[in-house]
Design a protein that fits this description.
This protein is an alpha/beta fold. Helices cover 60% and strands 9% of the residues. It has 25 helices and twelve strands. The protein has a four-stranded mixed sheet with strand order 2-1-3-4, covered by helices on one side.
């Protein structure tokens, strides 16, 4: 099936890691038992009939690995290969030791002392000529050790090096696509996971190739020991003549060497194929079973090879024939399951009446945030070297998440040929909310105190805050910095503008879905609070409205548990969003005051005079005649203008001293004072007396 992966291929439990009916057989225990059995074989003697079975399994295992490597499309589809290679090498070495024990201890009894398979290999290859057998064995060792193993190891080493060297660039490309909105967070995580898996796989293959090389050397040494040791034992201990000892032990030694070298050669070829063409999920036994049964043709080919072995002269027909039948049945089951999956996929595609590009959700989809740039700004979006606009936007999303407490939607960056070359436009849900002009290659110089800039450049307005600024070239950058001016590049200007617009429009970005995501993302210890609050006491919509109200005044909602606790306290008495928001602000008083503190730890405040306090209280509608949404302010427009003038004068006086002061009012008047100030000076914070924490250090700048 095209594009099929391990996770999508559903196979019967009997095929996925040999899991028994209803999970009665634990495959992890089978794998652990098999490894322990191999280790036991290193120390305990094995009879010849058991050695025949194990040698047949070793040959079968190597052929299955080769067939799977041949039919694997991507290296990561066979990501368990390094672990399989270790197990296969350990099995062959254990069989080498077991056969060596039989050859040296019982070689005088005849050529069948080490089992039928070793005798058959020795007899079939040597054809009665010891020299020919040794030459054939030496050629196989040379082919495996010098050619295949060495080449596979070199390919694995180069692949691992290139994979690790390319990793930073691939990660940057993923981050750029994520910042540009081309992919979402889930796709970015999946791509990073694939990159990590590839680097891990090729690094493991670089080390695993040493297993193959060591196995070839060990096989050569064991064969030499068997031949010399067997002749010595036969002549000295068994009283055999040199010719008889040489004939018997050489046949057994060459047969044993061939039985071990042929599977080693097959595994070496599989390793070379795999690294020439990395991560796996789940336990190793399930992954190995799923990957072996992914291609039924591979199982069928294994069955054919086993049938050929069964008909070779001297081979144990029953062992190979049984294995061939088992693999043929596995191939049939795997193919039937694969056909069912393909049929189900085709039916699902056929039932889709509307193509994706013509579907309703595709045609009506809109970007929550989009940044369109003119063609002249493309070099700063993706610069040839160094971080660009996409990297800065990714960083600002993290910074906003830390500051405001929720993750903003991805910002899609597009080029727009209809814009001026150096212009950009910021869109919120397809509606333009801001635009600006920057000069690529130049720097924007601003005086933080609003003073005059004595440099040569192009006068302009900083787009985010409207400050007087000057575009200067690189030659004046150091002079501007030494003069105490703030100097930023074009990408930073755009990023700052986007940041301020996101903070301003944060309430609109906090949708119902985002609110649900925030609630679901709370740690397990806070989920009981969520279940007690929603929906019995307050709905998700009420929580959303309260959070939006906080964000509108740039109050962080990161401490969501405290906000929910405050809602649980107040929501049973009222559903008024204003009253709920004011109660939550009281609980967040320490946090709010900390965000307004100056470097010295003090918070500058302007108190609302008793006169204005009385004026606001007198202008509120009586409680008995107030609408369901709560009291309303009915102050005369002229009175409002007087209050605005008095407030701005006091704030400007504080600003002249280099202080950004907050206005402090009574809890009743605070919402209405804020509603007036946000229209004339939105960046000014308005606090209620209930929000001031007892341990907060205040600095009074006077009264309004």
């Amino acid at each position: 099936m095209k594009g099929q992966t391990v996770s999508r291929l559903r196979l019967p439990r009997a095929l996925t890691g040999l899991g028994g009916v209803n999970g009665l057989v634990h495959t992890d225990m089978i794998l652990a038992g098999a490894v322990l059995a191999i280790l036991t074989l290193l120390f305990l003697p094995a009879p010849s009939w058991l050695l025949d079975i194990l040698l047949a399994i070793s040959i079968t295992f190597s052929v299955m690995v080769l067939m799977t490597a041949l039919f694997t499309r991507r290296a990561l589809e066979f990501s368990t290969f390094p672990a399989i290679l270790l197990i296969a090498t350990l099995l062959r070495l254990a069989l080498n030791i077991a056969s060596t024990r039989l050859i040296l201890s019982s070689g005088n009894e005849g050529t069948s002392a080490a089992g039928q398979i070793i005798e058959a290999f020795g007899t079939f290859v040597m054809q009665g000529n010891t020299v020919i057998g040794m030459i054939v064995f030496a050629i196989l060792v040379i082919v495996n050790f010098v050619v295949i193993t060495k080449g596979s190891g070199r390919i694995a080493e180069v692949a691992a090096r290139f994979s690790l060297d390319a990793l930073p660039g691939k990660q940057m490309a993923i981050d750029a696509d994520l910042s540009a909105g081309l992919i979402n967070e889930a796709e970015a995580r999946e791509r990073r996971k694939t990159l990590e898996a590839e680097s891990t796989f090729f690094g493991a293959m670089d080390g695993a190739s040493k297993f193959v090389r060591g196995d070839a050397v060990a096989g050569l040494l064991i064969t030499f020991i068997n031949l010399i040791g067997g002749i010595v034992i036969g002549m000295v201990q068994q009283g055999m003549s040199f010719g008889a000892a040489g004939q018997s032990y050489s046949l057994l030694t060459i047969g044993d060497g061939l039985v071990s070298q042929i599977p080693a050669l097959i595994i070496s070829i599989a390793a070379g194929l795999l690294v020439s063409k990395a991560g796996v999920d789940g336990a190793a036994d399930r992954a190995m079973g799923a990957q072996f049964t992914m291609y039924p043709r591979a199982l069928a080919m294994v069955s054919v090879v086993l049938l050929i072995f069964a008909v070779l002269p001297g081979m144990p027909i029953l062992v190979f024939l049984t294995l061939a039948i088992l693999f043929a049945g596995g191939a049939w089951l795997a193919n039937r399951t694969l056909m069912r999956t393909q049929t189900a996929s085709s039916e699902a595609e056929a039932t889709m009446a509307t193509p994706v590009e013509d579907s309703t959700d595709h045609m009506l989809a809109m970007d929550d945030l989009r940044l369109e740039v003119g063609y002249g700004l493309l070099p700063i979006v993706t610069p040839p070297e160094g971080p660009g606009l996409t990297d800065q936007i990714k960083a600002l999303r993290k910074a906003i998440a830390q500051e405001l407490g929720f993750v903003t939607p991805p910002i899609r960056i597009l080029d727009n040929l209809r814009l001026e070359a150096n212009s950009y436009v910021i869109y919120l849900k397809e509606q333009e909310i801001a635009r600006g002009d920057v000069r690529p290659g130049q720097f924007l110089a601003m005086d933080p105190n609003g003073g005059r800039i004595n440099l040569v450049g192009e006068p302009t307005k900083e787009p985010a805050f409207g400050l007087d600024a000057l575009w200067i070239d690189d030659s004046q950058r150091d002079q501007a910095s030494l003069s105490g001016l703030t100097v930023v590049d074009a990408a930073t200007v755009m990023t700052t503008h986007v940041t301020e617009m996101i903070k301003t429009e944060a309430p609109a970005l906090l949708s119902y879905a985002e609110t649900k995501a925030l609630l679901n993302a709370l740690p397990e210890k806070h989920q009981a609070l969520v279940s007690d609050l929603i929906p019995a006491v307050a709905s998700v919509t009420i929580v959303q409205r309260v959070l939006q109200r906080l964000l509108a005044e740039r109050v962080s909602i990161r401490d969501l548990p405290t906000i929910l606790e405050a809602l649980a306290e107040r929501a049973p008495q009222t559903s008024d969003i204003t009253a709920l928001g004011e109660h939550v602000r009281t609980r967040l008083g320490r946090q709010i005051l900390a965000s307004l503190a100056e470097p010295g730890g003090q918070t500058a405040i302007l108190m609302l005079s008793p006169t204005w306090e009385q004026a606001f209280h007198a202008a509120l509608t009586p409680e008995e005649s107030a609408p369901p949404t709560g009291p309303q302010l009915a102050m005369a427009p002229s009175k409002v203008q007087d209050f605005v003038a008095a407030s701005l004068a006091a704030l400007e006086k504080a600003a002249a001293e280099g202080v950004s002061a907050a206005i402090v009012t009574s809890a009743t008047a605070r919402p209405f004072v804020r509603s007036i100030m946000e229209r004339v000076r939105a960046q000014t914070s308005v606090l209620s007396q209930n929000e001031i924490h007892p341990h907060t250090r205040l600095r009074s700048m006077g009264q309004i």
